[in-house]
């Protein structure tokens, strides 16, 4: 399949480009920044450029729409409400409309669990994006899948995280690793390859990470005292956590994604256990960050 990745030069796009190429698909990218070397078809433009958007969707079998300003840009106030609307709303419309005109029937929209913040700037733009995706699915009989991952900016993105411990503090609260988000997209692509005309139109799937904790653990968190549930699974790690400003007593927020597992066959791999092993290497000064270290 020829798969167009919007914002394909970003963290997720680079991982997807490599994975798609390795398995025999043909990734194409539309982005202002140059893509990974595995991409042969590159359109150096914004998704606000209608001419470039039209050219990029030609001959595409599937579109994975990643390009967006993210919640971090809202919290750090690096983008205005107008910036968010331009890229996240108008840009999403441009991609859906071009797909409909060109007859591209398979479309994956990367939304966010931030739709729960419906009156926030970022969350609201994702709600509008989802609504447009559903409308196009119904209006043009498109096979659309909406993925709702938690925040997944990787630890090696130094424009967001100054070091691994800072990323680990975020991840330990309950999160999803970018490699698992990549796997969820591949699962969605495979589902679209094998299915068409499915119901309901434009289903939405939550994308969370892997957890060692059980439902009983979460329901009875630290019933024997602060940090006891953490120690049950990760004995002797609490001191390391506290050393780097992490709280072993903090209960992670775990999301329900039974449908994502059952329908898409999604099986996340990276858990708190994996993060702890990397934190140990970071503490010892031997951790190598970057997608090449995955």
Written overview of the protein:
Strand 1, helix 1 and strand 2 form a beta-alpha-beta unit. The chain has twelve helices and seven strands. Helix 2 packs across helix 4, helix 4 packs parallel to helix 5 and helix 6 packs antiparallel against helix 12. The protein is of the alpha/beta class. The model has no long low-confidence stretch (mean pLDDT 96). The chain starts with a strand and ends in a 10-residue tail after the last helix. Strands 3-2-1-4-5-6-7 form a seven-stranded parallel β-sheet, sandwiched between helices.
The radius of gyration over CA amounts to: 20 Å
Structural class: alpha/beta
Give helix % range.
Answer: 40-55%
Main beta-sheet annotation? 7 strands, parallel
Question: Termini, distance in Å?
Answer: 25 Å
Tell me the number of structural domains.
2
Taken from the alpha-carbon principal axes, the silhouette is globular
């Amino acid at each position: 399949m020829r798969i167009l990745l919007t914002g394909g030069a970003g963290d997720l796009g680079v991982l997807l480009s490599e994975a798609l190429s390795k398995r025999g698909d043909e990734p194409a990218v539309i982005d202002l920044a140059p893509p990974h070397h595995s991409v042969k078809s590159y359109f150096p433009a914004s998704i606000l450029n209608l001419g470039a958007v039209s050219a990029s969707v030609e001959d595409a079998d599937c579109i994975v729409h990643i390009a967006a300003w993210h919640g971090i840009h809202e919290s750090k106030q690096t983008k205005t409400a107008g910036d968010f609307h331009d890229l996240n709303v108008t840009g999403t419309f441009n991609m859906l409309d071009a797909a409909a005109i060109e007859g591209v029937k398979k479309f994956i929209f990367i939304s966010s669990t931030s739709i729960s913040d419906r009156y926030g700037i970022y969350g609201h733009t994702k709600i509008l994006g989802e609504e447009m995706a559903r409308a196009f699915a119904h209006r043009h009989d498109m096979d659309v899948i909406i993925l709702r991952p938690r925040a997944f900016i990787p630890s090696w993105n130094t424009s967001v995280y100054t070091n691994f411990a800072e990323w680990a503090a975020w991840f330990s609260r309950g999160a999803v690793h970018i490699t698992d988000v990549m796997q969820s997209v591949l699962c969605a692509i495979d589902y679209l390859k094998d299915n068409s005309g499915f119901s309901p139109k434009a289903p939405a799937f939550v994308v969370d990470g892997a957890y060692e904790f059980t439902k009983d653990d979460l329901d009875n968190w630290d019933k024997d005292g602060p940090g006891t549930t953490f120690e049950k699974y990760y004995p002797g790690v609490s001191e390391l956590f506290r050393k780097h400003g992490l709280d072993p007593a903090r209960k992670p927020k775990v999301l329900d994604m039974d449908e994502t597992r059952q329908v898409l066959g999604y099986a996340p791999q990276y858990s708190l256990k994996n993060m702890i092993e990397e934190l140990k290497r970071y503490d010892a000064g031997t951790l190598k960050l970057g997608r090449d270290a995955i």
